[in-house]
User: Which sequence fits this backbone?
């Protein structure tokens, strides 16, 4: 005996079936990397060669040394404390953040000025 097939939704001509993607737990998307991989140390050295990076490191180091010196001027034993290291880290982060913000504001200001000086389109 032959069974009659019932028409299912999406089986008629002109209709397309849409499959829903299901997320699988524990699966992480893999990013394909180009065949010519750059060694991480080489990439790091290229980053360190950038002038802005060296300026940021110098500003952070200067602020950290200033914070340690300030703590040492109050009491010589405070230089070795963890609190002194925390204050030095906070000072370095604040100095780097301030330098980055000033650099960003300078670039955005220059971009706005350049946009304002462009000739009007007809």
Assistant:
């Amino acid at each position: 005996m032959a069974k009659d097939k019932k028409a299912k939704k999406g089986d008629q001509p002109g209709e397309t079936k849409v499959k829903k993607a299901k997320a699988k737990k524990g699966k992480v998307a893999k990013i394909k990397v180009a065949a010519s991989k750059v060694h991480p140390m080489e990439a790091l050295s290229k980053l360190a060669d950038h002038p802005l990076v060296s300026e940021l490191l110098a500003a952070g180091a200067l602020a950290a040394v200033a914070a340690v010196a300030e703590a040492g001027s109050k009491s010589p034993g405070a230089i070795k404390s963890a609190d002194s290291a925390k204050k030095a880290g906070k000072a370095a982060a604040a100095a780097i953040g301030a330098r980055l913000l000033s650099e960003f504001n300078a670039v955005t200001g220059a971009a706005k000025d350049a946009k304002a000086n462009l000739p009007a389109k007809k």
